[in-house]
Design brief:
The protein contains eleven helices and no strands. The protein is an all-alpha fold. Helix 3 (92-115) runs parallel beside helix 5, helix 4 (124-152) packs parallel to helix 7 (205-218) and helix 8 (223-250) runs parallel beside helix 10 (291-315). The protein is elongated and about 75 Å long. 39% of the residues are buried.
């Protein structure tokens, strides 16, 4: 067990015994495994905490006397905020490497598709659907990414901040990918209108439930509520429903191999983000001191955001009837998304 300098009353060398204090590694945390991973070495305790080693209190404080980070930024409570380790073990270098590989793949798909004339083979109804409804979806991804960018600022530890910020980065990258993809294929399609997506997002009744759900998440003052609402509720009930349950299922049947490939990276992104979120929420839901408080809090978040997500999903139903080729039904895909949601919630014991 780590001894904190604040309990000793001195920051002098040798005043307290830390993990590896007798080693030349100078590590001030207890690794989760036998040895610290590279992710732990560059992440754990990078963000200072007065309860861990900063006996002079926060180095930076705001005018209201609050320190740089405040546990009150979320209604959730923890007996040890520093216990969380992201399952995807992602940090700055690995994140940039993965994003670069995804962008290389996306650009190769678009370039090769246009070069081979694939866009000209798209079904006419599918083209209208892409410019309107895929064009609208990019606004949902951008809104969620912006929400997570705001949320990460308040995470009490670097581990929580990292997981939230990489999640934001994936969302913003996808919004950008969709924007560039539609702009590039639009150059090969006569009469293409880039503004239809924005108009649909703002005015089309199909998207107003989704817009309400996204803007509600963006307006949450609690950063963990935002993280919870996006990955535990919205993504399985709405995000995966539209991306996996529609775009990736229906694209090929309408002579489009490009769109499913561009969207596919988002599904791998979500698996990583979901694993991180479940791990953090599970720790809080089973906290030795605050488990009952946190479970009650999560139930209230679940009720609030599930209602909005269900409304959003139902509003998207007409899109499934728009393509000429309809290999899957909305009802079947909705059943799959609800089953997925149930599995996620059951992992948390909610």
């Amino acid at each position: 067990m780590t001894v904190l300098s604040s309990s000793v009353g001195s920051g002098a060398a040798g005043a307290a015994i830390f993990a590896d204090s007798d080693s030349r590694k100078y590590r001030y945390f207890q690794p989760r495994g036998k040895r610290a991973t590279h992710y732990e070495d560059v992440t754990v305790d990078v963000q200072p905490d007065p309860e861990r080693y900063l006996i002079q209190d926060w180095i930076i404080s705001f005018a209201d006397a609050k320190g740089a980070y405040d546990k009150g930024s979320t209604a959730a409570k923890s007996s040890n905020w520093h216990a969380f380790r992201a399952p995807d073990q992602e940090w700055e270098r690995t994140h940039y490497q993965r994003q670069s590989k995804i962008e290389t793949m996306v650009q190769s798909v678009i370039s090769n598709g246009r070069k081979s004339g694939a866009v000209r083979a798209f079904d006419g109804a599918w083209i209208k659907l892409l410019q309107t409804h895929l064009g609208a979806w990019k606004h949902a991804e951008f809104g969620l990414g912006t929400s997570l960018m705001q949320a990460q600022r308040y995470g009490y530890t670097q581990m929580i901040n990292n997981a939230t910020l990489t999640n934001s980065s994936y969302k913003l990258r996808l919004a950008q990918d969709i924007t560039l993809y539609l702009a590039e294929i639009g150059m090969d399609i006569e009469g293409w209108d880039d503004t239809r997506g924005k108009t649909a997002w703002l005015e089309d009744g199909i998207w107003q439930g989704t817009r309400e759900a996204v803007e509600t998440i963006m307006g949450c003052a609690d950063y963990l509520e935002q993280y919870f609402a996006i990955n535990i509720v919205f993504e399985p009930l709405v995000g995966e429903l539209f991306r996996s349950g529609f775009l990736m299922q229906v694209g090929a049947a309408n002579s489009d191999f490009m769109t499913p490939a561009v969207i596919s990276a988002a599904e791998a992104d979500y698996e990583r983000n979901l694993a991180n979120t479940i791990d953090l929420m599970y720790l809080l839901a089973n906290d030795e001191t605050y488990s009952n408080h946190n479970r009650g809090l999560f139930e209230s978040w679940l009720m609030k955001h599930r209602t909005l997500a269900e409304k959003a999903a139902q509003g998207l139903q007409p899109i499934w009837s728009m393509p000429h080729s309809k290999p899957v039904s909305f009802e079947d895909m909705r059943a799959v998304s609800r089953e997925r949601f149930g599995q996620i919630v059951s992992e948390l014991g909610l």
